[in-house]
Amino acid sequence: MNTTREDSPAYLEKKRFFDSLMTVYGRKTVFEALQDPATYLYRLHLAKSNKPAEILTDIICLAEQKGAEIIYHDRQALSRISKNSAQDQGVAADLQLRGYQHYDKFLQDNRQQKYNLIALDGVHNPQNLGMIIRSACAGNIDGILLPQKGNAQIDPLVIKASAGTVFRAPLLRCKDLTEALMDFKQKGAIVCALSSHATTELKKFSPEKACIYVLGNETEGVSHAVQKLCDESVKIPMNNGVESLNVAVTAALIAFR
Amino acid sequence: MNTTREDSPAYLEKKRFFDSLMTVYGRKTVFEALQDPATYLYRLHLAKSNKPAEILTDIICLAEQKGAEIIYHDRQALSRISKNSAQDQGVAADLQLRGYQHYDKFLQDNRQQKYNLIALDGVHNPQNLGMIIRSACAGNIDGILLPQKGNAQIDPLVIKASAGTVFRAPLLRCKDLTEALMDFKQKGAIVCALSSHATTELKKFSPEKACIYVLGNETEGVSHAVQKLCDESVKIPMNNGVESLNVAVTAALIAFR
């Protein structure tokens, strides 16, 4: 049996493992991530050019305690790993987080459940993304469907705004949001857009099935392509002529309904 | 009758008028504030050193339409008015906002009402303050009790995060929060702190009287002096071991109960 074949169980398992890793960078970020006992560290990447620093000693010590591989790279190679040489500070880490998985896996495991998800369709502001993760993690949300493109990337700003909850939040990775939503719909879930133009109020909306609440871009709202897939559209009524709520506030109101 | 006497009706009226003014600064901020037809502009202050610019022409035009006094100052005098020479960009405006008043006035007008207020006890982050104002203005909150010291000042960052709602939000000014809270208590209101250590859940708390919900500092929570005045303390239960919510998220959950 040739284990390099793309449909072989060994290949798929390996792919699933690498897909489950999240690479974070920045000294404080990596240090905080490693302090969480539930964070599994696969590899710690360090720039050979790093000068000695207390926080680096602490990071290496934590990595050794977790039994992780520690690799030293030249500056350019590290940049390719962190994908952000301006902010990585010579440190990156491949983490396996307890809540981070491909949405496929979630769908398999929760086929019959009446879950509630939040899907993000163009949330660009890192602080908003971090706050959404924090509120969803604290509230009654079973997963945050996060497309790889089109939203803020999980960077130190996001991690800070999440108050570190990104390391334990149920994050469901997908490539393309419309594809993922179609998969969820096929398995019986309802897709519901938040929109100030909707007629139904969030408070009066109580779906009988699993539901995915889609939050759109800070300025543009939910994209046209995603809107077309939505079964429902709900609004949050506002006083004093206020036209919209911050997207992270909207997420919190859904998470704590 | 000597109208300069500090207890004369004319003096008190004049004081009430000047107390009702909010001075904002920064070109974009002032421009946006003046675009709201409900904003009354008392005085526009400009630095003599300003070079011609389109936005300045627009600001002057709006000020003239509003029949306001326009005063040109040397740079130092303008700094004393804006209290932020680094960010005023040579422009400041004394505004009378529809929702901005001293808490005394609110107490007088709402003696028998079952109002809900949010009081801020050390919210330092301008973005949090702006978001709190936006959510409270959109939700079911009758006023935001904002002490002059100890919280972020209303600056361009706050105004931006408030999405401009600061110009219409019900802001109740006070000098000292403990003094104001004692006044409210004396008039029959309940004071309730938000605290993760509380035993009562926010959802299960339904006061029969007017209520002031106190939100504390982002790190420290409600101050000791204010805690001593609180009749109640409520929490928002959280999942996944999350220890706290962002203060602006907490405000939104109160505003949209």
TrEMBL record, chains A, B:
Residues 23-101 form the RNA 2-O ribose methyltransferase substrate binding domain. Keywords: Methyltransferase, Transferase. Pfam families: SpoU_methylase, SpoU_sub_bind. It comes from the Bacteria. InterPro entries: Alpha/beta_knot_MTases (IPR029028), Ribosomal_eL30-like_sf (IPR029064), rRNA_MeTrfase_TrmH (IPR004441), SpoU_MeTrfase (IPR001537), SpoU_subst-bd (IPR013123), tRNA_m1G_MTases_N (IPR029026). This is 23S rRNA (Guanosine(2251)-2'-O)-methyltransferase RlmB. It comes from Cellvibrio fontiphilus. The lineage of its organism: Bacteria, Pseudomonadati, Pseudomonadota, Gammaproteobacteria, Cellvibrionales. The gene is rlmB.
